[in-house]
From TrEMBL:
Pfam families: MutS_I, MutS_II, MutS_III, MutS_IV, MutS_V. Keywords: ATP-binding, DNA damage, DNA repair, DNA-binding, Nucleotide-binding. Belongs to the DNA mismatch repair MutS family. Residues 692-708 form the DNA mismatch repair proteins mutS family domain. CDD domains: ABC_MutS1. This is DNA mismatch repair protein MutS. One of its GO terms (cellular component) is cytosol. This protein is involved in the repair of mismatches in DNA. It is possible that it carries out the mismatch recognition step. This protein has a weak ATPase activity. It comes from Mucilaginibacter ginkgonis. GO terms for molecular function: ATP binding; ATP-dependent DNA damage sensor activity; damaged DNA binding; mismatched DNA binding. HAMAP family: MutS. Signal peptide: none annotated. One of its GO terms (biological process) is mismatch repair.
Length: 869
């Protein structure tokens, strides 16, 4: 604030001390009923929130910018600041100003950052809000994901590529890492995240280990199965350290930490997660697989669905279990409806119980907890009545926590207000003192009427009235007509046009009793409510387990619902090495076709013996990419336990999916498209396994035709000849030359996506049929895109010549040279602009050998004048 320490007021001193403790954070400083910001913070806040920026004319601080808002608007303004990328420190008054004669004690009660937020307005219901903590060495890294709003805490470690892929899957809102690793971080993970760096010292194995032991109150981390994840432990320990730094202390709901077991999940590199548009896309408006598959009843279900989408399974038994439950729920419509009706009552139990731990749950939310527990009791019963083993198992684990459910019902009013401080929260009959005080405070109406009646009779003023106002409390009102009947001991307080108002010692005494009682009621209700919250917080673990089970049930029900709605079928997931899809569809494109257009289904067969690699050629826009992606998506959906968009599908377990589909968006990181493509492809080739599914779309198109064909050829050959891994591959390409591969390599087969030529037009049939295709119809697509007629005609001409010469055995390069030569001639002689024709004729008629320099200059002048007109 002020520059000179001597001139600082005590308030300014306090502000400066607190501000210094939270560098980089925007400080909201509570002064009375307002949150104020000063200086740079005020300029930022005014810009982001659109609030008025003023200057304080106050001694040395006269140049201090100031912007503030009423404290009750915090809920509205805080999310705006955080979404704008600010770290916001909320500094509150820590004591009642009435109880202190000196400056009020103040302190930061919470530092809200994009990754550490509990405010409903900042969080997105259907998405987790993860903080990711990363600790990395040269080739490996540990990572921890922590969502303070749900209590989830997960860790993993592996090579940098694995951690990068996890970052893509979990899409954290904030990533923290050591200050000393800024450049390394950027080189490895790019700049696609909101990041914050911490001092290097907390990144020590011992400190992190101790932090975790202390938090969980355990002797070792063995019980969590993370004991050996040295790097993961450091990352996780620092995540907790960061919560402490940001003033988050009530963290009982972070009750366990688990490890991501890499071996359980199908591997997808981060390009695949992005390219297949599973949960997000580079295009913000694109519809993702998550959008199409989400019909969940609770936010917890929606969040778990997203997790299942990016982490499909690769073990047969759990996949089959999920599919069987989905089938059961799909066929038994009544059961599904019964379940869904109950689940809809539950709401976001996971975040609700976190709020109880954080002591931020309001009375309405506690009421909602009771509703949820009642619904859980019904769900438990429905589960136990079914004959489906996995559903029965869910039912057995559900715990309706009847004791606390009853306690809430007994102690809380059935429709309490949101704020505890306003009273009316706790029920009658649970505390004698509360009942007594309430009688005094609210049973007063009768008492006042009694006074009114008695005094009216005593004074003989029939129109006497007892009323209340904020200025002098309870009073008696007498019309002027009866003024002379007023007893002398009444004290006159106010004269109105036609009446006078008086107070009496009796009324004053009564008033004091009432006001005192009200204050006591509010205080007592707050204590009782906090006691209730405290009891509830002892049930965090069973309620969290309930939330997980309900989320699971919700996703399985959701799979049944969307499968029915979208005509998906149960896939036969098995141990074979065959992928056999009949009548497959793309789950997202089929939902977004123009009205009247139907999705054309296709069959895809891949195995390790006869048809390992399919080269797919076909015109632009034919549907090659769609086919590649739909095959990947069908496999993914099957392995997440969902039915699939096909007529029939037999899926031999896939352990890794790699894709190189479409353009990349890494351009911002300074790499060329081709470099990115080669990076991605190299990573595929170095990681393939026998059960991998590889989807390659137009590999090599980013370089010259020769390079492109050669690279694509070599990749196909490598995949075919790999000694230990016959990875199944779909290879879409415009290079018809690649069709030659099938002559030499028995497991490479040619297919093409068909079109029909009708005169000058082509019709996209979108059917995949055996055999290569001859041309790409790229020029036709250019025409569809509205390219000028002249360019199209010229392109057609060049194409015809190239094709004719190629079939004549001529080299492309030679053909190209000829084409180029022709192009020069065409440019010179097919011009039809009269001025250019004139210039051409003038130049043609010149004899350069006999031209003197002066004549040359005169000719140039003549030409120039022709141009100028
Ligand atoms: N089987 C299908 N049924 C109906 N429409 C389809 C089908 N396949 C693709 N489409 C539509 O055609 C459009 C183009 O498909 P896609 O991008 O797969 O073509 P492509 O052959 O990969 O083209 P290019 O070679 O130019 O990349 C899609 O966006 C989709 O709208």
């Amino acid at each position: 604030m002020a520059k000179s320490a001597q001139k600082e007021t005590p308030l300014q001193q306090q502000y400066n001390q607190i501000k210094q403790k939270y560098p980089g954070a925007l400080l909201l400083f509570r002064v009375g009923d307002f949150y104020e910001t000063f200086g740079e913070d005020a300029i930022k806040a005014a810009g982001i929130l659109g609030i008025v920026l003023t200057k304080r004319a106050n001694g040395s601080a006269s140049n201090q910018e100031l912007a503030g808002f009423p404290h009750h608007s915090l809920e509205t303004y805080l999310p705006k600041l955080v979404r704008a990328g600010q770290r916001v420190a909320i500094c509150d008054q820590l004591e009642d100003p009435k109880t202190t004669k000196t400056i009020v004690k103040r302190g930061v009660t919470e530092l809200v950052t994009p990754g550490v937020a509990t405010n409903d307005n900042i969080l997105q219901q259907k998405r987790n809000n993860y903080l990711a903590s990363i600790y990395f060495e040269k080739n490996s890294a540990g990572v921890a994901f922590l969502d303070i709003s749900t209590g989830e805490f997960i860790t993993a470690q592996g090579n940098l590529e694995y951690v990068d892929k996890l970052l893509q899957s979990f899409a954290p809102s904030e990533v923290i890492y050591p200050k000393g690793k800024k450049q390394d971080f950027k080189d490895t993970f790019g700049d696609r995240f909101y990041t914050f760096t911490l001092d290097d010292w907390p990144y020590s194995g011992d400190y992190a280990y101790e932090t975790l032991l202390k938090h969980f109150g355990v002797q070792s981390l063995k019980g969590f199965g993370i004991e050996r994840l040295n790097l993961g432990i450091v990352a996780a320990g620092v995540a907790l350290h960061y919560l402490n730094e940001t003033e988050h202390r009530n963290l009982q709901h972070i009750s366990a930490i688990s490890r991501i077991e890499e071996a359980r999940y199908l591997w997808m590199d981060r390009f695949s997660i992005r390219n297949l548009e599973l949960i997000g896309s580079h295009n913000e408006n694109a519809v993702t697989l998550a959008d199409v598959l989400d019909n969940t009843c609770t936010p917890m279900g929606a969040r778990l669905l997203r997790r299942w989408i990016v982490m499909p399974l690769k073990e047969l038994k759990p996949i089959k279990d999920r599919l069987d439950v989905v089938e059961h729920l799909l066929t038994d419509v009544d059961l599904r409806e019964e379940f869904q009706q109950c689940i809809r009552q539950i709401g976001d139990l996971e975040r609700l119980i976190s709020k109880i731990a954080l002591q931020k749950a309001n009375p309405r939310e506690v009421c909602q907890l009771r509703k949820a527990l009642i619904a859980i009791e019904s769900i438990k019963k429905i589960c136990s009545d079914t004959d489906n083993a996995p559903l029965k198992a869910i039912g057995e684990q559900l715990n309706p926590c009847t004791t606390i459910c009853e306690k809430i019902g007994l102690e809380l009013n059935s429709e309490p207000p949101v704020l505890v401080a306003k009273g009316g929260v706790m029920a009658e009959g649970i505390n004698e003192e509360l009942d007594r005080l309430r009688k005094i405070a609210f049973g007063g109406k009768g008492y006042l009427l009694e006074i009114q009646k008695r005094e009216a009779e005593l004074t003989g003023i029939p129109s006497l009235k007892v009323s209340f106002n904020n200025v002098f409390g309870y009073y008696l009102e007498v019309t002027h007509a009866h003024r002379d009947k007023v007893p002398t001991e009444w004290i006159r307080k106010q004269t109105l046009v036609n009446a006078e108002r008086y107070i009496t010692p009796e009324l004053k005494e009564y008033e004091e009793q009432i006001l005192g009682a009200e204050e006591k009621i509010f205080a007592l209700e707050t204590t009782l409510y906090n006691e209730l919250l405290y009891t509830l917080s002892e049930y965090i673990k069973p309620i969290q387990l309930n939330a997980q089970l309900i989320a699971r049930l919700d996703v399985l029900l959701n799979f049944a619902t969307v499968s029915e709605k979208n005509y998906y079928v149960k896939p036969n997931v098995n141990d074979s090495r065959v992928i056999d899809i009949k009548g497959g569809r793309h789950p997202v494109i089929e939902k977004n076709l123009p009205p009247g257009e139907a999705y054309i289904t296709n069959d895809v067969f891949l195995d390790s013996d006869s048809q390992q690699i399919i080269i797919i050629t076909g015109p632009n826009m034919a549907g090659k990419s769609a086919l590649l992606r739909q095959t990947g998506l069908i496999v993914l959906m099957a392995q997440m336990g969902c039915f699939v968009p096909a007529k029939e599908a037999s899926i031999g377990l896939v352990d890794k999916i790699f894709t190189r589909v479409g353009a990349s968006d890494n351009l911002t990181s300074g790499e060329s498209t081709f470099m990115v493509e080669m990076n991605e492809t190299a990573s595929i080739l170095n990681n393939i396994s026998d059960r991998s599914l590889i989807l390659l779309d137009e590999i090599g198109r980013g370089t010259s035709t020769y390079d492109g064909i050669s690279i694509a050829w070599a990749i196909a050959e490598y995949l075919h000849s790999h000694p230990s891994a016959q990875a199944k591959t779909l290879f879409a390409t415009h290079y018809h030359e690649l069709n030659e591969l099938s002559n030499t390599f028995p497991r490479i087969k040619n297919y093409n996506v068909t079109v029909k030529e009708v005169g000058q037009q082509i019709i996209f049939l979108r059917k995949l049929v055996p055999g290569g295709s001859e041309h790409s119809f790229g020029i036709h697509v250019a025409k569809l895109a509205g390219m000028p007629q002249k360019v199209l005609a010229r392109a057609n001409d060049i194409l015809k010549r190239l094709e004719a010469e190629r079939t004549g055995g001529e080299h492309i390069k030679e053909s190209m040279k000829k084409v180029q030569k022709q192009a020069m001639q065409l440019q010179m002689f097919s011009i039809d602009d009269p001025i250019l024709v004139k210039i051409r004729d003038t130049l043609n008629n010149l004899d350069v050998n006999t031209l003197t320099p002066v004549e040359a200059m005169m000719k140039l002048d003549e030409i120039q004048r022709m141009i100028k007109g």
